[in-house]
Amino acid sequence: MKARPVLFVFLLVAILASACRTNNAPTPAPVASPTAAVDQVWNRVSSSGKIVFGSSIDYAPFESYDPTFRPVGFDIALAQEIGTRLGFQVEFRDIAFESLLSTVQTGQVDAGIAAISVTPDRQQTIDFSNIYFNDKTSAISKQGSGIKITFPNQLASYRVGVQRGTTYEQWIKATLIDPGLMPPTNLFTYQQPDHVVNDLKNGYINVVVLGAESANQYVQAGGVEISGESLNSQLYGIALAKGNPTLLAKVNAALNQIQTDGTLSRLASQYLGINSGTQPLPTPPPSISTPAPPQIPCDSMTFVADLTVPDGTKMNPGQSFTKTWRIKNTGSCTWNSSYKFVFVQGTAMGGQPQSINGNMSPSQTYDMSVPMTAPTQPGTYAGWWQLVNPQNVALGTRVWVEIVVPAPPPQQPQPTAVAPSIQYFTGPQSAVQVGEVIPLRWAFSTAGVVSAKLTRTNPDGSVIALYGGVDVPTPGTYEDLAAAPGTFTYTLAVSTEYGGTQTANVVVGVVQ
After folding, report:
1. For residue 455, what are the β-bridge partners?
2. Spatial contact of 238 and 114, defined as CB atoms under 8 Å apart
3. Which one of 58, 182, 393, 485 is least enclosed by Cβ atoms within 10 Å?
4. What ranges in 149-279 are assigned the alpha helix state H?
5. pLDDT at position 7, please?
6. pLDDT at residue 22 in the model
7. Angle, alpha carbons 99-104-108 (nearest 5°)
8. How far is CA 433 from CA 458, 481, 482, 508, 511, in A?
């Protein structure tokens, strides 16, 4: 990956212009009991020995799934390293980005890490760790377009795509649309980063605005090129619920160790292809010290259980099946038929969007079923699904289905048919007299032989089995008595288990 400028900076004023992922979920409603115990999350984590990170695992190279459906990326490796330094097992939950901060705030996860920019608005409800990465905003366009963006205002004349719920969307609105420099119809928002880049390659939009490291990754994949760099700056931090100073201090201490001993630089080189220095980590601007009352968002969903098709279930090619998940309404708003369950990424396996049937009040569970069809080719397949509200905003935990279509058993090699092989079958070289002996000699291959019979056909056409009617050996001999004049035909017939019979004849004339 192309080297980038120094990772960490001290100009925290850049936070005010940061342009990474943001949260556009509906305005949350206060919980009935607003008082939360100080260090509640730390108490839970230290008691269980496990720290749960929420992440929107769709933003390579920071977080994505590898071919075995395991979370990987810079953020994933950093979270695992933090867990190791703190002595905790690390678990990841894939959360729709629009819901990530609210799940942190309400304690559904212990921390959030997903290339989250620190902004003053977010600091009203969320605490952030020290900054662990300074990213830049880039613009990409279709390869060969010739588009060059050196100043943000130049974006105004293009159809611009961004991932929905990010600060790129917020930044373009504040910088270009609100001042009247760019018509709102020129901004196109998408749920997934891959979706916006696909539309860019197909010519539906002209430019995509995103983080520099993700931009470089798409350029490496082919079909797009960098059109603008360093359009503004964004500083990433780990999101934590307010009122947990111990957890915040522990995470910052681990980050400091990871940075000063060179681990952070190693991870940046491994996952982002850049080199970083060892200067101290920046600290985000101070946030409100008094914890805000915990809030429940209007729309939130939590996975409860898999009811059918456990992960790794084997399916026949083309087999129809229905995957059912039990989910829970953890928001404050009632779901109705305008809430839909939609495919996010992976392999859809023929699954179609499903609407909520009826009304689902807060705290109720719902069994969501999606009919699917297994692919016809062998392999392991997974598909991720999530709930969206009437405004098509994703909410809550993403769920998945994983099946295996086994390869057909290898065909056993069929034995090659071997034809019988009679090497020789001989008799007297001339006519014999009545009363003399007729000598016969033979040999044949034994490969797959199931029978070897010797018979005599008399002058009257009758057939006599010789050698007692049993199979003859190989090599073998037989002496027959010439009892009467006439023509006698001796036949050797050899058959194999693979099919087929070979015969050889000896014709003998007997005279008086």
Report:
1. 465, 491
2. no
3. 485
4. 167-172, 193-201, 212-221, 245-260, 263-267
5. 37
6. 43
7. 90
8. 16, 10, 7, 11, 5
Angle formed at CA 366 by CA 360 and CA 370, multiple of 5 degrees: 120
pLDDT at residue number 231: 84
**Residues whose CB falls within 8 Å of the CB of residue 306, separated by 6 or more in sequence, listed in order:** 324, 325, 326
Write down the pLDDT at residue 294: 59
- Residue 512 and residue 495: Cα distance in Å, rounded? 36
- All structural domains of the chain: 12-136+215-296 (3.40.190.10), 301-405 (2.60.40.10), 422-511 (2.60.40.10)
Contact at 8 Å (CB) between 333 and 298?
yes
Residue range 293-317, pLDDT digits in tens: 556 788 989 999 999 999 999 999 9
The DSSP secondary structure of 127-187, one letter per residue, reads EE-S--EEEEEEEEEETT-----SSGGGGGGS-EEEETTBHHHHHHIIIIITTTSS-GGGE
Residues, the chain, total? Answer: 512
- Below-70 pLDDT ranges, the chain: 1-38, 275-295, 413-420, 499
